[in-house]
Amino acid sequence: MFENFTATDRWTKKQVHCVYQSMIVAIATRHADAVDIKFLAGGRKVWVSLPHPAWVEYKKRTRRSITDPLALEIAGHLQPGDIGTPIVAAPLVPKVSDVVREARKLKAY
């Protein structure tokens, strides 16, 4: 589970300690409706926003739901690789296909 883990920064190749902090269901004008998952990566905030349509698409393809623990794991896999450098304020918003692909990989369906 991606509650407390280490990731490698893409640029510095250093290991960065990451800790899950929160999950928020967001319906907002800033981006498509999404589930926002916040990590602290080396003490910096990192947001990964998983688009709601990914839940629908995953259910269509597998007849299973993306659970909160699975969403957290997907976000941990999809978080940006520049986590050790100053973080841009904008969240990472992966494509629906990326979320579904990662969910299927993690659940081996």
Task: Please tag this protein with its features.
single chain, 109 residues, alpha+beta, four-stranded antiparallel sheet
Question: What's this entry about, in short?
Answer:
This protein is an alpha+beta fold. It has three helices and four strands; from the N terminus they run ββββααα. It starts with a strand and ends with a helix.
What does this 3D model show about the protein?
There is one protein chain. The chain contains three helices and four strands, in the order ββββααα. It is globular, with a radius of gyration of 14 Å. It is 30% helix and 30% strand. The chain has one domain. The chain is of the alpha+beta class and 109 residues long. The longest helix has 12 residues, at 96-107. A four-stranded antiparallel β-sheet has the order 1-2-3-4.
Number of helices: 3
Rg, rounded, reads: 14 Å
Biggest sheet character: 4 strands, antiparallel
Number of domains: 1
What is the typical, i.e. mean, pLDDT? Answer: 79
Strand content: 25-35%
- Cα separation of the termini: 18 Å
Q: Helical percent range? A: 25-40%
Task: Order the strands across the largest sheet as they lie in space.
Answer: 1-2-3-4
Low-confidence stretches: none
Task: Give, in order, the helices and strands.
Answer: EEEEHHH
Number of strands: 4
Q: What form results from the Cα inertia axes?
A: globular
Structural class: alpha+beta
Q: Secondary-structure blueprint of this entry?
A:
Blueprint: E1 4-8, E2 15-26, E3 34-41, E4 44-51, H1 53-62, H2 68-78, H3 96-107
Antiparallel strand pairs: 1-2, 2-3, 3-4
